[in-house]
Amino acid sequence: QLEDSGGGLVQAGASLRLSCAASERTFSSYVMGWFRQAPGKERELVARINWNAASTDYADSVKGRFTISRDNAKNTVYLQMNSLKPEDTAVYYCNAYRTLAGTINLYWGQGTQVTVSS
After folding, report:
1. Given this model, what pLDDT does residue 108 score?
2. What is the pLDDT of residue 6?
3. CA nearest neighbour of 57 among 70, 45, 75
């Protein structure tokens, strides 16, 4: 349902853009998010965006550096990551969430590795 891409190995200070393509035709009804999980740590929310991009939330650690956006016509959500730091190194996962008539729909991408060297 969700296909993450765009990760890679970069030096500190560089930028990367992650993409998440959804096959769900009702993509626009989902809250989309990016999570990350570093080795030995719990998965944490990085950023999320509501269905029409009117509302976004960011982890304090990425505010001012990362930007989440979505293109509902392309069923795709993006995470622009600037000024990357070694502590941003993690596997990044795309997430889709919605509640509909009391039912929770939750999907995860397969993850894409981001490695930032110092």
Report:
1. 96
2. 97
3. 45
